[in-house]
Design a protein that fits this description.
This protein is α/β, with parallel strands linked by helices and 314 residues long. The chain is built from 12 helices and 9 strands. Strands 1, 2, 3, 4, 5, 6, 7, 8 and 9 form a 9-stranded mixed β-sheet that branches. Strand 1, helix 1 and strand 2 form a beta-alpha-beta unit. Helix 10 runs antiparallel to helix 11. It starts with a strand and ends with a helix.
């Protein structure tokens, strides 16, 4: 089975050599890499051109954002299984072998994922060394309910999708959006297919990379990806077991926005967002934020958020 690895490249020259090297080191050798340079202003594209492996292709386009670059990569892909790899992340040697094994063991399923490991600068870079046996993979048929419990168990660089399934969803990534563009695809895939998951951490997710949008982004309204999910879910019949978990996921996204509004001192807007969240279910997350709306000052909310993040990190 041939894998197409799509790499969207924009000003990540310091990392792209190591990223490509991780693909070159794969134990599964039937692959191609499609690097879509999205108008980089550094020498990242030149570094890709210096790679002499004929399986690595470089496609150039004017800067249009990561979604357009990934969609272009999908259009250029020739493999049966399409994988994504951010230009500053890397694969363990058995990553593609594991994805292919799962795709072959579950021919009726369309998307597959492995676990991943977040790596801070100077941190431990060791990943899993052996592929998970296909029989040990988990078949996830309650994706939205699981997201409400523990969030999504993979990220963009640790997922593979059959090319036929992606073509049915084109454009796969919403162009013009900078945040949550990957979630849109994962949600739409989950509405149609079951996820096959090998929890072993076979991909490294590089944290705190300079220029990261997510490290500084703050929201004053729910992301479009959640608004679209809400619109679709409200149209599902009540008998659809994914309907309520999907709407609860939207509710939790609204609560997150409410907390950020509180931190910004916009209590009225936060209360209004909490009211919208109330339509789709009440969780402990909702109740704790409701108390914060009544009692916390912006500085108290910020301190609480920092404390909570420190607890999660530890």
């Amino acid at each position: 089975m041939r894998c197409s690895v799509i790499i969207a490249l924009y000003n990540k020259a310091p990392y792209i050599d190591a990223t490509l090297a991780s693909v070159l080191a794969q134990t599964h050798e039937n692959w191609e890499v499609v690097v879509v340079d999205d108008g980089s202003t550094d020498d990242g594209a030149a570094r890709v051109e210096a790679c002499r492996d004929p399986r690595v292709r470089l496609v150039r386009q004017a800067n249009g954002g990561v979604s357009r670059a990934r969609n272009r990569g999908i259009a250029e892909a020739r493999g049966e299984l399409v994988c994504f790899l951010d230009a500053d992340d890397w694969y363990a040697p058995d990553y593609l072998r594991t994805q292919v094994a799962m795709a072959q063991a579950y021919p009726a399923e369309s998307y597959f994922a492995t676990g991943f490991k977040g790596v801070m600068p100077g941190g431990d870079t060791a990943l899993a060394e052996a592929p998970a046996a296909p029989g040990q993979a988990l078949l996830i048929d309650d994706f939205f309910a699981r997201c409400n419990r523990t969030w999504i168990p993979f990220f963009t660089s640790s997922v593979a999708v059959r090319r036929t399934a992606l073509w049915a969803l084109q454009p796969c990534f919403p162009e013009g959006e900078q945040f949550g563009e990957d979630l849109d695809l994962w949600f739409r895939l989950a509405e149609r297919h079951r996820l096959v998951l090998a929890p072993a951490p076979l991909v490294a997710y590089r944290l705190e990379v300079g220029g990261s949008l997510t490290s500084t982004h703050r929201r004053d309204q729910v992301l479009p990806v959640f608004a679209r999910l809400e619109q679709r879910a409200r149209g599902w019949p009540a008998s659809n077991r994914a309907r309520q978990p999907a709407l609860l996921l939207v509710s939790n996204a609204r609560v997150v926005v409410a907390r950020e509004l509180l931190e910004a001192g916009r209590r009225g807007a936060a209360v209004a967002e909490m009211g919208r969240a109330l339509r789709d279910g009440v969780t402990r997350h909702w109740w704790s934020t409701a108390v914060m709306c009544m009692l916390f000052t912006p500085s108290m909310t910020r301190r609480w958020t920092l404390w909570r993040k420190s607890r999660i990190a530890s």
